[in-house]
Write a structure and sequence with these properties.
Blueprint: H1 2-15, E1 41-43, E2 68-72, H2 93-106, E3 116-120, H3 135-161, E4 166-171, H4 173-185, E5 195-201, E6 224-226, E7 230-232, H5 242-247, E8 277-278, E9 285-286, E10 293-295, E11 298-301, H6 326-347
Parallel strand pairs: 2-3, 2-4, 4-5, 5-6, 7-11
Antiparallel strand pairs: 1-3, 8-9, 10-11
């Protein structure tokens, strides 16, 4: 029920922003997180957390998995009562619970058979930072959030990685931070040889973002980037506000991966290729829910039919970018790790 309420709220926020300009008080940034403390990780292999969950099964034991997943969760700081700072506090118990019950359970968990899942809590920027006219405050909010993400990744590298293969996975604001993280730590560096793949979902990622990391164009390719943004078939982005129109204008070099074929071509893939979706109940798998086709810089899907879908008017399915394709992404992450390990074995590395 909590996830259903969050999903409905996010769909409403996406379709009609209601937050007023000038909402924010002076920022109280708080102290930088100490990532030696497990409490500052929403998911970590040394603690029991929502990312351990498997739909319809007992939780997974990550200890013996050969790879690691560094997951950067999306915006869950969306303007509920008292959320009037540009950046969230990682000590906000209510916000942390919301993050765990939504993004960690329904997104981070899909990687828990591919690798040990690490997901740092960070002082995420408010949802309004993507839309405000106050660009300076928004930029500072995103910089602070990225500062935490990078600090967490650096700590992970120094204390827990030990040369293991790495998947970077993210959604929405998480992808906003994953792009510069990969640019700094992987793109053209020695660490690039440890990159299994990057699943950078929910925000535009272009071919120009990385110098030496290509888009994934096949299901078992490694060292590459997958990305998509999901909309109803026929959707054409239109923003009346000139600032929004500029920020989210179509980008011809955008990487768009079809998560039903793991290719970047424009071939239509029917819903029968969908291995299963998760909607409102974590243990209730919905088979054959949506099809998928790459169209320009978007992933189009036919409007899904499920109980209550008649009330969903938005054609932007951003909140379900992972959920629509939960089991396809889950299987693909496992396959890419195996392909990575096979390639290393064949070369003797």
């Amino acid at each position: 029920m909590k996830y259903l309420n969050f999903l409905i709220l996010m769909l409403l926020v996406i379709s009609c922003r209601v937050l007023p300009q000038g909402l924010f008080a002076d920022q109280k940034q708080g102290n930088a997180p100490d990532y030696s403390l497990l409490e500052n990780w929403a998911a970590h292999p040394d603690k029991s957390d929502a990312a351990d969950s498997i739909p319809g099964q007992l939780s997974v034991n990550e200890a013996d998995l050969p790879a690691d997943v560094f997951f950067i969760y999306p915006t869950t700081y969306i303007g509920k009562k008292g959320e009037n700072q540009w950046n969230a506090s990682i000590d906000d118990v209510s916000l942390n619970a919301r993050t765990d019950e939504t993004a960690i359970l329904f997104q981070a968990s899909l990687f828990n058979q591919a690798g040990r899942v690490f997901a740092p809590r960070y002082r995420q920027a408010h949802y309004e930072a993507y839309f405000t006219r106050d660009e300076l405050s928004a930029k500072q909010a995103f910089q602070l959030a990225y500062q935490d993400v990078e600090a967490a990744f650096q700590y992970y590298l120094e204390h827990w990685n030990d040369g293991r293969p790495i998947i970077i996975a993210s959604h929405s604001q998480g992808t906003t931070h994953a792009i510069p993280l990969i640019q700094k730590y992987f793109d053209g560096t020695d660490l690039q040889h440890q990159l299994v793949a990057a699943y950078l979902v929910g925000m535009p990622v272009t071919r120009d973002d990385f110098k030496s990391i290509p888009p994934c164009t096949s299901p078992d390719q490694t060292g590459c980037v997958c990305s998509w943004r999901t909309f109803q078939t026929g959707y054409v982005a239109h923003f009346k506000h000139p600032y929004l129109a500029t920020r989210f204008a179509p980008r011809p070099k955008t990487i768009v991966t079809n998560p039903l074929s793991w290719k970047t071509d424009t071939l239509y893939v029917p819903r029968q290729n969908n291995q299963g979706s998760l909607l409102f109940k974590f243990n209730e798998v919905v088979p054959d829910l949506v099809d998928a086709q790459v169209v320009r810089d978007m992933l189009w899907v036919t409007k899904p039919r499920f109980r209550g879908s008649i009330f969903i008017r938005t054609r932007n399915y951003h909140v379900a970018d992972y959920n629509f394709f939960y089991f396809n992404v889950r299987a693909n992450a496992v396959d890419r790790v195996q392909a990575f390990l096979n390639a290393k074995l064949s070369t003797g590395n």
